[in-house]
Amino acid sequence: MIDLGISKLALIGAVALIVIGPAKLPRVARTVGTLLGKAQRYVADVKAEVGRSMELEELKKMKESVETAARDVESSVASGAGDFEKSWSEATSGLDGSAFSSDTSEALSRLGTDSFPSYKHPRKNWRIKQKAMPQWYKARTGVRTRAQSGAARVARFRPRPSSASR
What we know:
Blueprint: H1 6-20, H2 25-92, H3 97-111, H4 126-131, H5 135-141, H6 150-157
């Protein structure tokens, strides 16, 4: 910026005092101050915008690098899966499927069952369990049995005015 020393500022102030006059000097100084403030805010906004655009460019570059890395990983996984499928098919090409099924049927016959037990639903109902709770237990533990609005709850717990203060 402009390099102004104390002597130059004093000279500018003296000239301004003579030209403008002492009556109008405070108003002119206020106007100059507000204009300088606006200029500084504008410069700060421009700097912030430039910073945001630079960050956006960096984020775009980072996004592109992550996408290329993801594509590379995807291709390597796909090639690895293809190699595994090929080696698996080569390894299992000599095996008979009948040998495996006969082994499992022998193991099941040793257990004494031919199939696994089927799933049976426990038939539990949460509402029935809540209703089965006795009323005295609900009252003691504070389980809500009736719906109450927020305003009614506030009114219920509002402190009562004492009769001694009347």
